[in-house]
DNA sequence: CTAGGGTTAG
């Protein structure tokens, strides 16, 4: 049967969407937890591979009727749904966390003294809101476990594993994985171990990531093609395609391979500018009886785009045609974007024309790129027209489209436009992310709009967007350049208090500015903080 | 998450 929390998320999702994007829906529904026979049968379009071009008038009623039949199927859900409306718990909980307790234990104590009760929705939201803030995240997670009648879902465990990995707390991360395993309830899945491997790879612990893969069966997870691809992808994306290749060599004879396995390597070699290795992998792929597909070719096209070798890009498009491999929206996006960035705007627009004549439909990401290159070329009016036109074509702007529009509005100091777009996003139920807020924050620093800055910080919090080290760096730097040193110092302190390691450049600019203004006392304070920063965990 | 993101320079 469909897990309750999952149903609730689905419910919230369908309640909030004006323009359904099927991808997250499928992600929500299509997993082993949800495929049991007792559940009302899912609408068939959810499982169909054609996730694009489903229109709203069709999807929403279909989903709504499924949700209704599900409610009948499990009447207890009605109660949960009505309690969804009480968003005061999250506010009260957040207020307590604002006290910035120094350790998770103290968070637990504070929460024990409150009359809050844990629920899946509440914990999920807190973990999102504090995903870059370990003390409150771990505190709430630990506290919720002690609440009677509450049990963490596997997804919440997975989120916590991910948060610990992101914060480089690898020992704690492993402890938690073992704790999940001890529950003996199939809590550790490939989703869990995927996060583990990815975080280890990102932390440069390549060997440990491989070890995690080797030991998958200890947690009852199968070492299949999907698991191996996950590991290889994690390694290849973190600048270590060589490690990915080693994994490939070691396991290729005892693990089933698929096209994806080879594409991950091709992509990795291309990204690392090792074209010969990429070509060798392509040959090896053929030897294994796999035919290069659009993904394989697109990786090569991207490589030549990076090299600005557009003659070679054309050749590859031709080769694809010969081989009967149709380029898709991704392929066209890459080619157009690269031409636009290389200031060959007319050639870029030709790609758009070619795409249309080839019968390939643009998607939101494609339009975002088009808007980006037009704006970059100073053609703001055309960019705006495309932004309006895409909706008429039935493609709703996504977070990247809005971020692109907001970035350029900020770059041209069109404050009002930028904020209106942010508001429009909300109306469209399109959630902003850190990259959406970054240009807005930067603009506020530059123009010394402290009230707007404050508004944005609250906006972020309300949208569960947790500030990361990069965003703190942007704030400190921007405020330094605008002479708002007091605020710059307080963000620096906040950053350090979250165990983030400031970059040298961030530290340097702050010290320099404090020196310039002869603020000796504040400078000493910052130096003291910096000396207490724990050096990055190594080996 | 097998491929498409502009990020931290004036």
UniProtKB/TrEMBL annotation:
<dbReference type="Pfam" id="PF01535">
    <property type="entry name" value="PPR"/>
</dbReference>
<dbReference type="Pfam" id="PF13041">
    <property type="entry name" value="PPR_2"/>
</dbReference>
<feature type="domain" description="PROP1-like PPR">
    <location>
        <begin position="342"/>
        <end position="510"/>
    </location>
</feature>
<feature type="repeat" description="PPR">
    <location>
        <begin position="363"/>
        <end position="397"/>
    </location>
</feature>
<dbReference type="InterPro" id="IPR011990">
    <property type="entry name" value="TPR-like_helical_dom_sf"/>
</dbReference>
<dbReference type="InterPro" id="IPR033443">
    <property type="entry name" value="PROP1-like_PPR_dom"/>
</dbReference>
<feature type="repeat" description="PPR">
    <location>
        <begin position="398"/>
        <end position="432"/>
    </location>
</feature>
<feature type="repeat" description="PPR">
    <location>
        <begin position="293"/>
        <end position="327"/>
    </location>
</feature>
<feature type="repeat" description="PPR">
    <location>
        <begin position="258"/>
        <end position="292"/>
    </location>
</feature>
<comment type="similarity">
    <text>Belongs to the PPR family. P subfamily.</text>
</comment>
<keyword id="KW-0677">Repeat</keyword>
<feature type="repeat" description="PPR">
    <location>
        <begin position="328"/>
        <end position="362"/>
    </location>
</feature>
<protein>
    <recommendedName>
        <fullName>PROP1-like PPR domain-containing protein</fullName>
    </recommendedName>
</protein>
<dbReference type="Pfam" id="PF12854">
    <property type="entry name" value="PPR_1"/>
</dbReference>
<feature type="repeat" description="PPR">
    <location>
        <begin position="468"/>
        <end position="502"/>
    </location>
</feature>
<dbReference type="Pfam" id="PF17177">
    <property type="entry name" value="PPR_long"/>
</dbReference>
<dbReference type="InterPro" id="IPR002885">
    <property type="entry name" value="PPR_rpt"/>
</dbReference>
